[in-house]
DNA sequence: CACTCTACCTGTGCGC
DNA sequence: TGCGCACAGGTAGAGT
């Protein structure tokens, strides 16, 4: 269940660790399951990737964005490989000789005897080739890890809806998933069913601070966790998946409800409905 | 705009 | 032990 911190962790591994994905030339592309490719056919995807060099690596919300140059697509012009891991996707930089796993959907073979391998048991993950990453990110709000208070407030004012689905809405702010939505609301002391229009300015500030601090802390502990076992990484959850267990703060029992078809966990004592 | 529901998928873990 | 089924959740899209 990669959310923003897990994707950031993968990005840092690919970009900053040795060996790095940056500078690698794509030699061969093997699409093991065609449904993974969005926006063009698997054949076109393979042809256009082959020969290109990875020159940049970035992220917006839960989307990984790799800049490419060379190859057969629009000679001389940079283009982009965009990857979304959705629920169960796992991306790793492996030795080219690595044995495919049962749920390997895509292998991008690189020079230096490396390969980028995309495993995904549930086939929810997707990859795109685009001329401009905005084709994907135009629909997304600002990245939740770095969004400032002013922009957060401006965008917040565009909606009046329950806080839980608002936080999950990638058009509002991008990168928050079910786990960190619940954790952010707990830290902010806000009930998930509270309507966004009912928050005072100080509560909006508190919500922003909660979101950003939770994500930063999660990024920090995942950064220490290099071997690709993610889930919630080293982050210690306070409410998520803790139904029936005592709240760390007040000792009352954590409750689970369904909000917008999602499991939603909160402390009925610490989280007030305004 | 807000909301609800469905589809996409398969591994897991429960009740019986 | 095994069967059936609800459940997990990110996103798109359709419908109210």
Note the overall shape: elongated
What is the H/E string? HEEHEEEEEEEHHHHHEE
CATH class division of the largest domain: Alpha Beta
- In DSSP terms (H or I, runs of 4 or more residues), the helix count works out at 7
- What percentage of residues falls in helices of 4 or more residues? 25-40%
Radius of gyration: 20 Å
CATH superfamily of the largest domain: MutM-like, N-terminal
Mind describing the biggest β-sheet? 5 strands, mixed
Number of strands: 11
Look at the structure and give the mean pLDDT: 92
Beta content: 15-25%
Strand arrangement, largest sheet?
2-9-5-4-3
Q: Unreliable runs, pLDDT <50, ≥5 residues?
A: 224-231
- At the fold tier of CATH, the topology name of the largest domain is N-terminal domain of MutM-like DNA repair proteins
N-to-C terminal Cα separation, in Å?
30 Å
Overall structural class, as computed from helix and strand content, comes to alpha+beta
Characterise this structure.
- It is built from seven helices and eleven strands.
- With 274 residues, it is α+β, with helices and mostly antiparallel strands.
- It has two domains: 4-137, MutM-like, N-terminal (N-terminal domain of MutM-like DNA repair proteins), CATH 3.20.190.10; 149-266, Helicase, Ruva Protein, domain 3.
- Helix 1 packs across helix 7, helix 4 (149-156) packs across helix 7 (201-223) and helix 6 packs across helix 7.
- The chain starts with a helix and ends in an 8-residue tail after the last strand.
- It binds a DNA duplex (16 and 16 nucleotides) through residues 1, 3, 35, 62, 84-88, 103, 120-124, 126, 158-162, 165, 168, 170, 177-179, 260-263.
